Amino acid sequence: TIEQKGETSTGVVAKKIKEIVYKETDNSSVDTNDTPYEEEYSLKFSYGNDGSVARIIDERIDSYDGEKSTYTYNFNYDIVGEIQVERKNSRYDETDNYIVKLDDRGNATEVSKNGKKLASFGYTNDVRLAKMVQYDEYNDDEVDYQDIFTYDNGVFSKYTTTDNGDGENDEYIFDASYFANKYPNNGMIDMMGFIGGGFDYDFLFYIGRLAKTSDYCLEKIPGDGCYEDNISHPIETKGPNQYIKTVTGKSADYSDEPT
């Protein structure tokens, strides 16, 4: 459960996040009579005197081997226009170093990992995340894929992802049914930090360096565009400021059983 409290409906944050705890369940294996894969997460936040995130301890346990992995992110803001990030993986004794370049609003324009350009970012005129460009792991100048966000009056209207490898585009349209309750997306962390996920730079959402996206939180997620049916996965809520991430829905591929 993630609790984010605001003083007003416009999103003045009154409390910083101390810890996020949630479980993610991938039920796609149910159709093949396999045990669903589960992973438990705990993210603990520490702050500097100026209120910026100084450290995140990310602990996770997966159901395959029951082993716990701990990632510790340390953030350094000493250089103007830049954030230096050190990520340590205690399980495998690995350390990665990131450099985040910022614009004059403090939002990320580019992130590199261990000296290689990882991604770049663009924003709309009203300072919403408009584009995420992922670069090839072995060639800084070659774009791997792009994610494009389109808005209508401050609300998500379309999401497009372009794979430069095969040249194919996947496009998802969001109508009013995706924002039926109009839960405000005004917490310390933009909702894309939870439902986008899987990026090597997710921490940028956690420290508020990718501006914001939609004014309202998505209440369901479109299924994979390659399926014959566009399946929606609901996001359960406990209230306007408490969000629970779920991955429930139905498989369009194998059966009509709930997964």
Describe the structure.
There is one protein chain. With 259 residues, the chain is mainly beta. It is built from two helices and 17 strands. Strands 2-3-4-5-6-7-8-9-10-11-12-13 form a twelve-stranded antiparallel β-sheet, with no helix packed on it. The chain has a three-stranded antiparallel β-sheet with strand order 1-17-16, with no helix packed on it. It is globular and about 45 Å long.
Poorly predicted runs of 5 or more residues? 1-11, 224-259
Distance between the termini: 21 Å
Number of helices: 2
- Going across the major beta sheet, what is the strand order? 2-3-4-5-6-7-8-9-10-11-12-13
Q: What order do the helices and strands follow?
A: EEEEEEEEEEEEEHHEEEE
Strand content: over 45%
Number of strands: 17
Structural class by helix and strand composition = mainly beta
How many whole angstroms does the radius of gyration measure?
A: 19 Å
Apparent shape:
globular
The major beta sheet can be summarized as:
12 strands, antiparallel
Give the overall average pLDDT.
79
Kindly state the percentage of residues in helix: under 10%
